Amino acid sequence: MSACPIRVLSAVTAPTDTLDRQITTGEQAGLLHALSAVPDPRSPRGLRYPLTGLLAVAVCAVMAGASSVTAIADWLHDLDDIARARLGFLREVPAATTVWRLLIRLDADQLATILAAWLRTRTRPVDSARQPRYRQVIAIDGKTLRGARRADGSQVHLLSALDTSTGIVLAQVTVNAKSNEIPAFTPLLDAVERLLGSLKDLIFVADALHTQISHANDIAARGAHLLIPAKGNQPTLHTQLKTLPWAQIPAGHQTRETGHGRRETRTVKAVTVTTPGGIGFPHAEQAIRITRTRTSTNSGKTTRATAYLTISLTAADAQPGDLQDWIRREWLIEALHHIRDVTFREDSHQARIGNGPAVMATLRNTSIGFHRTNGDTNIARATRRANRRPHDLITAVTSSSPRMQ
User: Fold this and answer.
1) Helix residue ranges, H only, 243-355
2) Contact 99, 58 (CB under 8 A)
3) Are residues 138 and 158 in the same domain?
4) Is pLDDT above 50 for 218?
5) Distance in angstroms (rounded) separating the CA atoms of residues 61 and 57
6) Which residues does the UniProt record annotate as the domain Transposase IS4-like (predicted)?
């Protein structure tokens, strides 16, 4: 036996048989199994790297904080042989350009659906017996990827649907370059319906851009409900709601909060309009007014904002306390977009080719959703922990283990 310990230590830390290790059945029940449903856009001739392995690396690297394709490739190169083998790379590893050529050719909308379905398998169903008034609320909002450009110079805009109870983005569609979010609303509903099987009894919340008669009819036809604000794009509805005798209607629910350098009071009033014709918007059952009063703890300055909304649920099914909760959930998708910008520097990523921008956004959504289902509230901290513990991360995503410890 050699007196030099280096060879002995090397044999202990990197066994020679690890490169031939096969992925186990238990691991295939996790992310790798889910990703096997993604169609391979590459030509079958000369394939050197497995599709599921490349996609799993991209998913895991972004979960560990990678904000670009170069960072994804660096994360893979920094793994030890055992970790690489667990993701399907038995010998060589790809360059960043190889990963990017794959990502830009993927069907971004289909990838979003597949990863959302995988994340949903990691969540526990809500116990309706313990939460009798629970309703699943889906927030819809769009986001422009400011650093990404198409060949014609236009920016990439994505419309997403977030399950506010789990933090999982259920679907994401790319808005046509010569259009806006309104025509993309129905395809987004279609994608959510394919994933969930049915939209019955779900509540959709969105900003005033989607206060559209066609949207209200579409959602009602699917058995779902719409909670939507009324602003200038629906002037008749806005005027009708604003001129209701709100002074005679008692406050239904009020909250007071202190934080972020201010004191805030939110008061909700709701009323069922029984006059002939009711509310001038399809399927609307209640008119809602919410008043937000904010006082700066530093300057003492007080500001007040009033918003008017409608909902297609009756007062028996949507009480003021429920409305307060559901209205505030619309902000959760804004928080998601903020995390993508701040933690993952999305607006600085200048992806310009194919479906690359949308695919990268899907990977960021998946990372945030994964850490949310793992119980993390600080996503930046969760990504740093995942980067420090790659083996734990790989175990969590490739097996049936519901959490990363």
Assistant:
1) 320-342
2) yes
3) yes
4) yes
5) 6
6) 135-364
Cα–Cα dist 122/128, whole Å? 18
Q: State the helix-helix crossing angle for 320-342 and 356-373, rounded to 10 degrees.
A: 120
Residue found under tokens 């959760």: 332
Considering the domain architecture, whether residues 255 and 289 belong to the same structural domain is answered as yes
**Domain match, 169 and 220 both:** yes
Q: Is the pLDDT of residue 8 over 70?
A: no
Task: Supply the range of the domain harboring residue 56.
Answer: 10-103+374-398
Partners of 307 in beta bridges: 290
371-374, long-range: CB within 8 Å, 24+ apart, which pairs? 371/63, 372/166, 372/167, 372/168, 373/119, 373/122, 373/123, 373/166, 373/167, 373/168, 374/403, 374/404
Q: What count of other Cβ atoms lies within 10 Å of the Cβ of residue 391?
A: 12
Looking at the domain assignment, is residue 219 inside a domain?
Answer: yes
User: How far is residue 260 CA from its own chain's centroid?
Assistant: 25
Do 221 and 300 lie in one domain? The reply is: yes
402 pLDDT tier (thresholds 50, 70, 90)? low
Asked, for residue 3, whether it belongs to a domain, the answer is: no
Number of domains in the chain: 2
Looking at the domain assignment, is residue 390 inside a domain?
yes
Closest CA to 63 of 107, 119, 121, 131: 119
Strand pairing category for 262-271 and 286-296: antiparallel
Residue 382 lies in a domain: yes
AA identity, residue 271: V
Lookup: tokens for 115: 């990863």
pTM of the predicted protein model: 0.87
Rounded CA separation 80/58 (Å): 16
User: In one letter, which amino acid is 1?
Assistant: M
291-294's contacts with Cβ under 8 Å and 24+ in sequence apart are: 291/265, 291/266, 291/267, 292/264, 292/265, 292/266, 293/264, 293/265, 293/266, 293/267, 294/262, 294/263, 294/264
